[in-house]
């Protein structure tokens, strides 16, 4: 996800703690993102 968005991994974790960014869920110790949620979030960002 970080590579796809071109941002550091730490930013994704920061966003999750602040309730920002695309919706994420944990599988074990790792964050996972549904593709549909990511594209919906990106659409919201470009529309804003």
From TrEMBL:
* SUPFAM superfamilies to which the protein is assigned, alphabetical: Putative DNA-binding domain
Q: Specify the Helix-turn-helix domain's residue ranges.
A: 2-45
Pfam families in alphabetical order: HTH_17
Q: Which InterPro entries match?
A: DNA-bd_dom_put_sf (IPR009061), HTH_17 (IPR041657), WH-like_DNA-bd_sf (IPR036388)
Spell out the protein name for this chain.
Helix-turn-helix domain-containing protein
Species whose genome carries this gene: Janibacter alittae
